């Protein structure tokens, strides 16, 4: 009976950014179609570890619970992924939960993803249109371009690709696969391409394309199946063209 089945979880905990991490084991009653978030919620309702000792509720981040917001990323059994779609019945036990190591730990499984958001700001991952002027209809995007651009727009800034990338670490300022892919997305937009040169020059500098070692861990780990390495290859070509334009003093895009 599922009522008698127990789920074992070993959680890496940390009481604060400057505290030492430690492991704590829990057991929760199994339910059909249970995911990792459900197990964590059970522990939150009754924060008692496997030894029967009362403890603080586990802290983690979440929002949509349907793999859209990207907030609930963590390392599950050694692999970074979304905990809302990690089904307990498909995981080897004991289930080991750890915070992503690429980002500073706030507490327990919650991390500060500012590094990734700052990189998106650095590459200006938006369409910079200000004001309320009536400019009429915007330029249309060709259907063949729209189809692959839509795949890039699925990015939910979960941080899994940065966690999987060996070049994103405390010793490197590499911005990572997700911000690079967003450069390609916004440079492909009919209006966004007005700032394409600025974005390309940003990623041509330190921390940009040159820091990618093409390990391809990012594309294998992306929950949305975004072709990140394809974007990086396309950006390498675009940045080469931009280099020639800069060298010959051309401002044309």
From TrEMBL:
PROSITE patterns: 4FE4S_FER_1, 4FE4S_FER_2
Cofactor (UniProt): [4Fe-4S] cluster; [3Fe-4S] cluster; [2Fe-2S] cluster
Pfam family, one: Fer2_3
Keyword Metal-binding among UniProt keywords: yes
Keywords of this entry: 2Fe-2S, 3Fe-4S, 4Fe-4S, Iron, Iron-sulfur, Metal-binding, Oxidoreductase, Tricarboxylic acid cycle
Listed NCBIfam families: dhsB, PRK08640.1
Similarity annotation: Belongs to the succinate dehydrogenase/fumarate reductase iron-sulfur protein family.
Protein name, entry field: succinate dehydrogenase
């Amino acid at each position: 009976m599922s009522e008698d089945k127990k789920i074992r979880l070993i959680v890496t905990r940390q009481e604060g950014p400057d505290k030492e991490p430690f492991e704590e084991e829990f057991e929760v009653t199994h339910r059909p179609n249970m995911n990792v978030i459900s197990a964590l919620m059970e522990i939150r309702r009754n924060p008692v570890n496997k030894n029967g000792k009362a403890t603080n509720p586990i802290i983690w981040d979440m929002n949509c619970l349907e793999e859209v917001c990207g907030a609930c990323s963590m390392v599950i059994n050694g692999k970074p992924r979304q905990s809302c779609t990690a089904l307990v019945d498909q995981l080897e036990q004991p289930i080991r939960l750890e915070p992503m190591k690429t980002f500073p730990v706030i507490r327990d499984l919650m991390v500060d993803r500012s590094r990734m958001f700052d990189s998106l700001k650095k590459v200006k991952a938006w369409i910079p249109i200000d004001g309320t002027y009536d400019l009429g209809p915007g330029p249309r995007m060709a259907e063949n371009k729209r189809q692959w651009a839509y795949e890039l727009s699925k990015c939910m800034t979960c941080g899994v690709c940065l966690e999987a990338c060996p070049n994103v670490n405390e010793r490197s300022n590499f911005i990572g696969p997700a911000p690079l892919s967003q450069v390609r997305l916004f440079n492909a937009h009919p209006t966004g391409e007005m700032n394409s040169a600025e974005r390309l020059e940003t990623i041509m500098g330190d921390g940009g394309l040159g820091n990618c070692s093409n390990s391809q861990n990012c594309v294998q780990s992306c929950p949305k199946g975004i072709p990140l390495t394809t974007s990086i290859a396309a950006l390498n070509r675009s940045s080469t063209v931009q280099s020639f334009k800069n060298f010959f003093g051309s401002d044309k895009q």
